[in-house]
Amino acid sequence: MFELFAYGDAGWGDEILRGLAITVQLAIVTLPVGLFLGFLAAFASLSGLRPLRALGFGYTTIMRGLPEILTLFVVYNGAGLLLNKGLRWWNPDAPPSDFSPFAAGVIALGMVFGAFAGEVLRGAFQSLDKGQVEAGRAIGMTDRQIFRRIQLPQLWRFALPGLGNLWINMLKDTALVSVIALDDLMRMTKVAVGVTKQPFTFYLLACLIYWAMCVLSEVVLAQMERRANRGIRRAV
Amino acid sequence: MNPIEILFEYWPRLLDGALMTLKLTFLGALIAGLVSPGLALIRVQAAPMAQAPLRLYVSFIRGTPILAQLFLIFYGSGQFRPALEEWGLWTFFRDPFNCALLAFALNSTAYQTEILRGGIMSVPQREIEAAKAIGMSRSKILRRVVFPHAYRIAWPALGNEVILLMKASALASVVTVFDVMGRTRQIFSRTFDFSVYLWAALIYLCITAAFVLLWRQAERRLSRHIHAPGTPRASAQPFKESQA
């Protein structure tokens, strides 16, 4: 049975590894996009301006309430329609072109990650010690300095557990891009199933690979949390 | 076509999809809700060796994409077709709705078990000791003390899980179940009108909003003895009386 998973022409090992590489790439590229959107959302919801606060609240609430696959289709088809409209405006004879599924995946998963991360970061900001900000102001630090030297280093400590969970969720959500024809782990598995007619074996293999990635992430995240809290004395 | 025309033309399909989404979510959450209390008790009370398979199951469900779980059941069952036919189970696995429901129920069971385990472990030890002191039997303690309080603690988290399940149910469209997402993709492939996605988003948001309101209402009812109107703290009342 193991020749099925062999590397090379005989088995499906190399195809599945290539799919895995796409999955990992997608997750790694999405992470900074999602974090950036998350910071924007957190700043918006904490801002003194009412319209900005409403915008932040609207974005995090709506995005968290929609199925991820719907967001993905909205981005993929919506961006595709816009792209073609733009192309036709530019050049009426242009052939219809498809929006890159990878880019659609990054944008959609990044938007979902950003909405949840916005809430995590907002909570982390609010659990910072207010006295420290006042102390910073008292010794004449600018808002920027306070953010960079006092808030940001501690934010990490409060936000890490929540962000870690979001990372694992996002890693799992990357499986959705197989539906819009990106050759990730899930889709390569489907291709292998189509040829070998062994759906259970291959989907189980895909599950085991995702599982391994999640368990590995959990181990690394626990390590990071321990490191982030190294200067903190625990009461218990 | 403009968005309103789309809605006028296709609302019966979208409504049909919404009912399917509700059916999948409700049945999935219900099946998981019936199984999870027993499993949560095992997670709290049983010997570590007896818990091992359950922990493995929960870890597997939490560590794999629900889409992969769905494919494993729906497509994966095909590999065992002869055996399943022999046992008369093939008609069950051939239907995408059944497979989606099974996948969602299995998925939600794992999450609900963990949530309920947390709830049971947060029940104050004193309450259980008090129940033992007045001579309640083990099953009576579970029924009257542990589970009512555990559910009250776990209620908000369980609500979140049901919302997650509702969102996940959109994946059923990938195996040709016509829920909101399935109908939406069907309508889009016919009209290429983008606005149908916005209507779908609105439907999902409405379902979530309605559910949140209902769930909060139920939460208020579950803890009505704590926040009874008019009394500052109802739970403090008997204590005062006994002192007087």
Automatic annotation (TrEMBL), chain A:
<keyword id="KW-1003">Cell membrane</keyword>
<feature type="transmembrane region" description="Helical">
    <location>
        <begin position="20"/>
        <end position="44"/>
    </location>
</feature>
<keyword id="KW-0812">Transmembrane</keyword>
<keyword id="KW-0997">Cell inner membrane</keyword>
<comment type="similarity">
    <text>Belongs to the binding-protein-dependent transport system permease family. HisMQ subfamily.</text>
</comment>
<keyword id="KW-1133">Transmembrane helix</keyword>
<feature type="transmembrane region" description="Helical">
    <location>
        <begin position="56"/>
        <end position="79"/>
    </location>
</feature>
<dbReference type="InterPro" id="IPR010065">
    <property type="entry name" value="AA_ABC_transptr_permease_3TM"/>
</dbReference>
<dbReference type="InterPro" id="IPR051613">
    <property type="entry name" value="ABC_transp_permease_HisMQ"/>
</dbReference>
<feature type="transmembrane region" description="Helical">
    <location>
        <begin position="158"/>
        <end position="182"/>
    </location>
</feature>
<feature type="domain" description="ABC transmembrane type-1">
    <location>
        <begin position="20"/>
        <end position="221"/>
    </location>
</feature>
<feature type="transmembrane region" description="Helical">
    <location>
        <begin position="99"/>
        <end position="121"/>
    </location>
</feature>
<dbReference type="Pfam" id="PF00528">
    <property type="entry name" value="BPD_transp_1"/>
</dbReference>
<dbReference type="InterPro" id="IPR035906">
    <property type="entry name" value="MetI-like_sf"/>
</dbReference>
<feature type="transmembrane region" description="Helical">
    <location>
        <begin position="202"/>
        <end position="224"/>
    </location>
</feature>
<dbReference type="InterPro" id="IPR000515">
    <property type="entry name" value="MetI-like"/>
</dbReference>
<keyword id="KW-0813">Transport</keyword>
<keyword id="KW-0472">Membrane</keyword>
<protein>
    <submittedName>
        <fullName>ABC transporter permease</fullName>
    </submittedName>
</protein>
TrEMBL record, chain B:
<feature type="transmembrane region" description="Helical">
    <location>
        <begin position="54"/>
        <end position="75"/>
    </location>
</feature>
<keyword id="KW-1133">Transmembrane helix</keyword>
<keyword id="KW-0812">Transmembrane</keyword>
<protein>
    <submittedName>
        <fullName>ABC transporter permease</fullName>
    </submittedName>
</protein>
<comment type="similarity">
    <text>Belongs to the binding-protein-dependent transport system permease family. HisMQ subfamily.</text>
</comment>
<feature type="domain" description="ABC transmembrane type-1">
    <location>
        <begin position="18"/>
        <end position="215"/>
    </location>
</feature>
<keyword id="KW-0997">Cell inner membrane</keyword>
<dbReference type="InterPro" id="IPR043429">
    <property type="entry name" value="ArtM/GltK/GlnP/TcyL/YhdX-like"/>
</dbReference>
<keyword id="KW-1003">Cell membrane</keyword>
<dbReference type="InterPro" id="IPR010065">
    <property type="entry name" value="AA_ABC_transptr_permease_3TM"/>
</dbReference>
<dbReference type="InterPro" id="IPR000515">
    <property type="entry name" value="MetI-like"/>
</dbReference>
<dbReference type="InterPro" id="IPR035906">
    <property type="entry name" value="MetI-like_sf"/>
</dbReference>
<dbReference type="Pfam" id="PF00528">
    <property type="entry name" value="BPD_transp_1"/>
</dbReference>
<keyword id="KW-0472">Membrane</keyword>
<feature type="transmembrane region" description="Helical">
    <location>
        <begin position="20"/>
        <end position="42"/>
    </location>
</feature>
<keyword id="KW-0813">Transport</keyword>
<feature type="transmembrane region" description="Helical">
    <location>
        <begin position="194"/>
        <end position="215"/>
    </location>
</feature>
